[in-house]
Write a structure and sequence with these properties.
The protein has 141 residues and is an alpha+beta fold. Helices cover 17% and strands 32% of the residues.
Length: 141
């Protein structure tokens, strides 16, 4: 039996075997009723911190809501429709807490749509509009 993709905090396209539906696996996990917010970082290729031009979609689920954050270079972006007004904690693959910026939280169906689009295009999802996220340092102000 293979380990579900959802048990990997950092995902890239080549990790996803042909015929495996990442969105369906995330939906199945969430539909079972998560007790803590889960998150993952997804990129076209293995995350390389030296590659400043590599886009990374961080996404998460927490029952009826989820989060989206697009990272490129040193900039981060959140949906313009995001609802959380404070920093929050989601857990990478359900294990290690990661800080999620304000306004990253959206309806979970929006998360599913954005992940599906990114997997198809390899580009920042256009099914949501984006704005610059709060800086990491702002959580300490």
């Amino acid at each position: 039996m293979t380990t579900p993709l959802t048990h990997n905090p950092f995902l890239f396209f080549a990790m996803i075997p042909p015929g495996v539906d990442l969105v369906a696996q995330v939906r199945e996990l969430n539909d079972a009723g998560v007790e803590i917010p889960w998150a993952w970082s997804l990129s076209r290729e293995r995350i390389d911190l030296r590659n400043r031009e590599q886009g990374v979609l961080t996404f998460g689920v927490n029952n009826t809501v989820g989060v989206l954050e697009w990272g490129l270079s040193a900039a981060a972006y959140v949906p313009t429709i995001g609802t959380n007004d404070e920093w929050s904690g989601y857990y990478l693959a359900g294990m290690d807490e990661t800080n999620i910026p304000p306004y990253a939280e959206v309806p979970v169906d929006t998360v599913y749509a954005a992940v599906a689009e990114f997997l198809t295009t390899g580009e920042r999802p256009t099914c949501v509009q984006w704005k610059e996220a709060a800086s990491l340092l702002s959580q300490f102000e």
